[in-house]
Design goal:
The protein has 12 helices and 9 strands. By secondary structure, the protein is an alpha/beta fold. It has one domain: Rossmann fold. Strand 4, helix 1 and strand 5 form a beta-alpha-beta unit. It is globular and about 50 Å long. It starts with a strand and ends with a helix. Bound molecules: D-malate (MLT). The site of D-malate has 7 residues, from loops. The site of D-malate (MLT) has 7 residues, from loops.
Length: 264
């Protein structure tokens, strides 16, 4: 396990390829391996950079609350460490997308284009935020197995649950190995996150929005509204996929990425 400095923390990162840099930012409570199929298909054409966010995978954990802005700061510092000075494509899934909004707000000059997969711009309602904070407390008390029961069945489509056991097993094992303090800190950070809907009509870079047709957590209709607000966006709806479309239908998502991503 190697970690490299990223501002206030040290992060584990998988990096492969050259040419146009694409930062792949995982969702909650996952790690960089959710992008394995994108590495297989796309690393020969792009410079793919997939960190484990602070608190996840093999990266450093900090306790308490970690805000989406802090996670964005970590990523900017990581790019500095990797000597990435040219603008990147920021590709985030769900929580990775929440970090993406903050990255765009603060580091606009570093963004060449955006890919937002299965994510939301709205913040939590007060009830949802309370439930997240309670979940953070519960995970600290009982460990991540709680999330396997409550979250895993909602992460993927019915087809994946029934017919793609290797994906379900991979997710189960990632969730069970996620550090409880890291999970709790991210839950508290997501509960506090700001609404990004005000940002959408200010986005002026090419933007690809990707959503699984069966996504229960960031539904198609909500992502369609986001697409309507971002003048420079295109929406791709992925059949037979839920909230984790890049894993569940890597073939479709990789083709959409290959169409969209800048070659140099
Ligand atoms: C994720 O996949 O990152 C989560 O569903 C985000 C969330 O809980 O809002």
């Amino acid at each position: 396990m190697t970690r490299i400095p990223a501002g206030k923390v040290a992060l584990h990162v998988r990096e492969q390829g050259s040419a146009a840099p694409v930062l792949l930012v995982h969702g909650f409570p996952l790690k960089h391996t959710m992008w394995d199929a994108q590495f297989e298909a796309l690393a020969s054409k792009y410079r793919l950079i997939a960190p484990d966010l602070r608190g996840f995978g093999a990266s450093q954990v900090t306790k308490g609350t970690v805000s989406m802005e802090e996670l964005a700061d970590d990523l900017a510092a990581l790019l500095d460490t990797l000597n990435v000075s040219e603008p990147i494509t920021f590709c985030g899934l769900s929580m990775g997308g929440y970090v993406g909004w903050e990255f765009f707000r603060k580091y606009r000059d570093r963004v060449r284009s955006l890919v937002m997969c299965d994510t939301r711009a709205a913040c939590d309602t007060a009830d949802a935020a309370d439930a997240r904070r309670q979940l953070a407390t519960d995970v600290l008390a009982t460990g991540p197995s709680l999330l396997v029961e409550s979250l895993l069945p909602r992460l993927v489509s019915p087809v994946t649950l029934e017919k793609r056991p290797q994906i379900v097993e991979a997710l189960r094992s990632i969730i069970l190995s996620a550090p409880p303090e890291g999970i709790a800190a991210a839950l508290n950070g997501m509960a506090n996150r700001r609404d990004a809907r005000d940002l959408l009509d200010k986005i002026d870079v090419p933007t690809l929005l990707v959503v699984g047709r069966d996504d229960a957590l960031s539904p198609v209709d909500e992502m369609r509204e986001m697409a309507d607000s971002i003048a420079t966006s295109t929406l791709v709806v992925v059949d037979d996929a839920g909230h984790l479309s890049p894993m569940e239908r890597a073939d479709v998502v990789n083709a959409a990425l290959a169409d969209f991503l800048p070659l140099v």
